[in-house]
Design brief:
Blueprint (H helix, E strand, L loop, with lengths): L1 E4 L5 E4 L3 E4 L5 H21 L3 E10 L7 E10 L5 E12 L2 E9 L1 E7 L2 E7 L8 E6 L2 E6 L4 E7 L4 E11 L2 E8 L4
Parallel strand pairs: 3-4, 7-12
Antiparallel strand pairs: 1-2, 4-5, 5-6, 6-7, 8-9, 9-14, 10-11, 11-12, 13-14
Amino acid sequence: MAERKTSSGRRERRTADREEMGVDIGLGGVFKGLGDFINLLSEMVEAGESEVSRTGEFKVKGLGDRGRGVYGFTVRTGIGGTPQVERFGNIRSTEEGPVVAEVREPMIDVFDEGETVLIVAELPGVAEGEITVDVKDDVLTLETTGERKYAKEVLLPCSVDAATMKKAHKNGVLELRLDKAKDE
């Protein structure tokens, strides 16, 4: 397990596991996952943390790179201690079972900073020229092209002025800063 500070100064613990396995999502896995989740919440409370992230990767035997799954989640506790879970990765649940999608969902944090809104997206393996950002009112849409594909639509805390967007991209981390829209 590694601990790091994000660009916004918050502490974050991450674990990364690589394993090769066949996918078998049964009731045993659900209950084990629920037990692990409750243990994670207990650890957060004991350590006084308000946010914890976990990530991992696996390969489904026989599918090569098409069967490479990336998954993760962030648990945040806010006022009142209610946990909020945000998932990311390329594993989607369908009626037929879990599916490894070509497009991943990136980890995105949104910060209301007074007159501006800061969006921080983790896009490992993506060059700046492969990133497309579209903003309409209070909805931001992020997509990438290239070898690693990411896509996500994010509801912002308020309407923003797309013309004021400032971008910074370094080491797979995209930071967007937008001024809040002026009320007319």
